[in-house]
Specification:
The complex is a heterodimer of chains A (50) and B (443). By secondary structure, chain A is mainly α. In chain A, 44% of the residues lie in helices and 0% in strands. The longest helix of chain A has 22 residues. Chain B is an alpha/beta fold. An eleven-stranded mixed beta sheet of chain B has the order 1-3-2-6-8-7-14-15-11-9-10, with helices on both faces. Chain B has a two-stranded antiparallel ribbon with strand order 4-5. In chain B, helix 8 links the parallel strand 9 and strand 10. The N and C termini of chain B lie close together (10 Å). Classes of the chains: A mainly alpha (50), B alpha/beta (443).
Chain lengths: 50, 443
């Protein structure tokens, strides 16, 4: 099964990838220190759709 | 004229709802050609509604302070029978069959909608240079941006076209235009205002709130927009408010005129009886990184079905949507986990303060098309500079009020941001109202 969304064109990817890499580097510097008890900030409510 | 003054004039029959509506429609007719604040003006429907509201007042039916007050809605809010473009080619012909809940609430409160204000495409950006509906201009200086994404709402309120306009804020989109245009803007607590049938940008960062000409106007409209909610703790006595003034992050990489105006506002707050203390703020760079990752991924997930129509997006929005597709799911999950951790850090900070004072933006309104600004000798992307002090409070969901606190030498407004604990909007509004007359700013 293939995605219906076309891939990002190469020239665009070359422009945006460095921005994403810099952002992820900034994020990962912090997330590596997260301990296992830290979860999502939102609860899942299975009863909510009733 | 404030909403309270207009409300008094309506009740003393100095002016009718129809006359007030016509005055605002005249302003729109006079100014919209150069400001481009409105995408759609619903003049006939507004006059009809104003007439009905005049008849109600004559019969003794009074809906409260917003009865007969002309307002506008950002063109993300669904409006029944009125096209709702989201500033996008994708939705250029979309005519909803229902109103957004917030539109219904303001309508029930008696406000008269004059139409739909322009915005940055899909509310995904802060310049309001819209490739499909044109550039929106700042009424303070037509060569400058009104900010965004609620740029049309900020421009319309600042230009006196309406008393208030609704906005949305995913990373500063109410507070940035408020700061750049010299209006008040309130980003309420996350989910304090119902977002049903407000076109989303993300699943976990979007907020809905008012832009208005004074803090009291913002209060009156917020009270009509939000659901009543019991306070989470006893109200703080007015003379005992503890204001935290950041000793890190918020006063570096900033226009010195902006820093001076905000510090002056803190000194004025002491005159109201508040106590100002320096505080060390938790990792705001982390908060901003979380905000950018969550925004990028959630917006890209939302628009993925439309991304086969690449030619229908503006270049800047398409680039942001492509960035979101390149972020791994593991990083999105860890960004949300880091969000939990930062939330704990900020709740710990608020043990010793009631509110935080920061500049809304490190800069005043940039020129239209200006891609970079220089701060502390460093060239920075204008969009990242504009969102630097506001984005984090979307991540936390804390309420944040922006109000004008001064003017640059070039005559441009400067915004003060007051941030409170969740669901303590009334404390922010109380403090803002008492501070407003002490600050060097007049609309």
């Amino acid at each position: 099964m293939h995605s219906m969304t076309p891939p990002i064109p190469d020239d665009q990817r070359q422009r945006v990838q460095p921005i994403v890499d810099a952002l992820l580097e900034q994020l990962r510097q912090r997330t590596q220190a997260l301990t296992s008890e830290i979860g999502f900030p939102f609860d899942f409510h299975p009863e909510a759709a009733e | 004229m404030t909403i309270r003054q207009a409300a008094a004039a309506l009740r003393s029959r100095e002016i009718s709802c129809l006359e007030l509506t016509n005055r605002c429609l005249d302003e729109i007719a006079k100014q919209n050609g150069r400001l481009n604040a409105f995408i759609t003006v619903t003049a006939d429907a507004a006059r009809q509604r104003a007439l009905e509201l005049d008849r109600e007042l004559a019969r003794g039916i009074d809906r409260g302070p917003l009865h007969g007050i002309p307002i506008a809605h950002k063109d993300l809010m669904w409006t029944r029978g009125v096209r709702t473009t989201s500033g996008s080619k994708l939705y250029a012909d979309f005519v909803p069959d229902r109103d957004a809940v917030v539109v219904e609430k303001l309508d029930r409160a008696g406000a008269v909608s004059l139409g739909k204000t322009g915005l940055h495409e899909l509310a995904y950006g802060v310049t309001s240079e819209n490739p499909h509906f044109g550039v929106i201009r700042n009424p303070r200086d037509l060569d400058r941006s009104p900010g965004g994404s609620s740029g049309g709402s900020g421009a319309a309120v600042a230009a006196g076209m309406v008393f208030m306009a609704t906005g949305t804020d995913t990373g500063g989109s109410i507070r940035i235009p408020a700061s750049f245009c010299g209006t008040v803007g309130l980003k309420p607590t996350y989910n304090a205002v119902d977002k049903t049938r407000v076109h989303p940008l993300t699943q976990t960062l979007d907020h809905v709130g008012p832009l208005a000409r004074s803090v009291n106007d913002a209060r009156l409209t917020f009270d009509a927009m939000a659901d009543p909610r019991p306070p989470l703790r006893a109200p703080v006595a007015f003379g005992q408010i503890r204001i935290g003034l950041p000793s890190n992050f918020y006063f570096s990489g900033i226009d010195p005129e902006v820093a001076a105006a905000v510090q002056h506002a803190a000194r004025m707050a002491e005159r109201t009886g508040a106590r100002v203390t320096p505080v060390e703020i938790p990792d705001v760079e982390a908060l901003n990184a979380v905000g950018r990752v969550v925004l990028s991924v959630e917006a890209s997930a939302l628009y993925e079905p439309q991304l086969s129509r690449r030619e229908d997006f503006g270049h800047d929005v398409l680039a942001l949507l492509d960035q979101g597709r390149l972020i791994p799911a593991t990083d999105y999950v860890n960004a949300q986990r880091l969000r939990s951790s930062l939330l704990q850090d900020f709740h710990a900070l608020y043990q010793s303060i009631d509110v935080l004072f920061t500049p809304t933006s490190p800069i005043t309104a940039p020129r239209i098309g200006q891609k970079q600004v220089t701060l502390d000798g460093e060239s920075i992307d204008t969009r990242l500079a504009a969102t630097r002090f506001v984005r984090g409070f979307n991540v936390l969901g804390f309420p944040a009020l922006s109000l004008p606190c001064g003017t640059s030498k070039g005559g441009l407004p400067i915004g003060l941001q007051i941030i409170g604990r969740p669901f303590e909007e009334q404390l922010l509004l109380n403090l803002g109202e008492s501070l407003e007359p002490l600050l060097p700013w007049n609309l």
